[in-house]
């Protein structure tokens, strides 16, 4: 009887150990699956950021630079659509950017309007190959019309707005065909003073 009791106890012990091992193995599988789950490269972000970009378009259309600068980070970097990631021209710093736009307005007397806007707020979790930017941003597709004197041109532009932790615009990257803008300024002013001409 004692042997039978020990045998039953032994069987029960084996069954318990087998269940415990199986349970631990399953937990490890779940942990491994969670570890393998990648963070998405992009996620949806708050509509608030798209609203900020729309507001900046409206202010640039009115050339209300005094209000417009409130939406910009002090160390903003503004990239024009010429060259590649290493050679494209840029304006660094809010003060320099405001000065540039004031000069453009005084030099050309130009006006801008932004229509057919598509604004997509996103959170960027994985840095891009070129600019290494992460955080909240907005992909913007818009038709920009530039008028100088009695002439005008329109271009569909793609731009990327990135924000800092204070919801200020820290980076702006533009992508568009500059041909029409260059031709407009040459025709209206007789000189190639274009929207994206600046010094590095």
Automatic annotation (TrEMBL):
Gene3D superfamilies: 3.10.450.50. InterPro entries: NTF2-like_dom_sf (IPR032710), SnoaL-like (IPR037401). Transmembrane segments: none annotated. SUPFAM superfamilies: NTF2-like (SSF54427). It comes from the Bacteria. Residues 53-170 form the SnoaL-like domain. This is Nuclear transport factor 2 family protein. It comes from Maribacter arenosus.
